[in-house]
Amino acid sequence: MTAHPRIGLAYHPGQRALQDRFDSRRMADRINDLLVHDGLDDNQRTFIERRECFFLATVDPDGQPTCSYKGGDPGFVRTLDPRTLAFPSYDGNGTFLSLGNLMAHARVGLLFVDFDSGTRLRVHGTASVDIADPLLDTWPEAQAVVRVVVTQVFPNCPRYVHRYALVEASVFVPRAHTTTPVPAWKRAPWARDALPAHDPASHPAGREVRGR
């Protein structure tokens, strides 16, 4: 296990007010002192690379936050070193809410959850988006690569995490040597005439249509 220097959370007055109201300031400070670090240890790197999904929080220039689910096969999020994560941006609905936010406001939050054990890990950092990243071609069908420089990492209490088992991996995750099916919504009347010209769903004889 690799140790890293601590860089604490900067509690603002609103957080402090609630900590004082519920007498949790001492615990908040203890968590800051013991659990918040500025890099990933070996166990945390392994934990992240075994996850098949995570939640990504970003904010737009007006301060409006959004949270999105990102999924893939285990290992789709890579820990390049103790201070750097990288993950692909796959085809979506074309709004680029999260990636667009990152291009305007680099600060980001990631939440990784193991739904079998309830273990949670929170990562804060600054992100960059690159459509020509050297790693781009190592993820099938990736449109861009997001790199996150980790500034804070800390675990969360697992007690309220409901336990789930993986029923089926998504057939839409791009995989090497596999043709990715088209989601049915892209062939719907409201969507099909607005698709990008290069989208496989734009062609009637394109890929198999699956799901919604």
Short description:
The protein has 212 residues and is α+β, with helices and mostly antiparallel strands. The chain is built from 5 helices and 9 strands; from the N terminus they run αααββββαββββαβ.
Q: Can you put this structure into words, describing what you see?
A:
By secondary structure, the protein is an alpha+beta fold. It has a domain at 37-156: Pnp Oxidase, Chain A (Roll), CATH 2.30.110. Helices cover 19% and strands 28% of the residues. The chain is built from 5 helices and 9 strands, in the order αααββββαββββαβ. The chain has a 7-stranded antiparallel beta sheet, covered by helices on one side. A two-stranded parallel sheet has the order 8-9. The longest helix is centred in the first third of the chain and has 11 residues, at 25-35. Mean pLDDT is 93; it is low at 1-6.
Report the count of strand segments.
9
CATH level-1 class of one domain = Mainly Beta
Largest sheet: 7 strands, antiparallel
Tally of helical runs: 5
Content of β-strand? 25-35%
CATH architecture descriptor of one domain: Roll
Structural class of the secondary structure composition? alpha+beta
Instruction: Give, in order, the helices and strands.
Output: HHHEEEEHEEEEHE
CATH topology assignment of one domain: Pnp Oxidase, Chain A
Terminal CA distance: 43 Å
As residue ranges, the low-confidence spans are: 1-6
The neighbouring-strand order within the major sheet is 2-1-5-6-7-4-3
Q: How much is the average pLDDT?
A: 93
Which percent bin holds the helix content? 10-25%
Can you tell me the overall shape?
elongated
- Report the C-alpha radius of gyration, rounded: 19 Å
The CATH homologous superfamily of one domain: Electron Transport, Fmn-binding Protein, Chain A
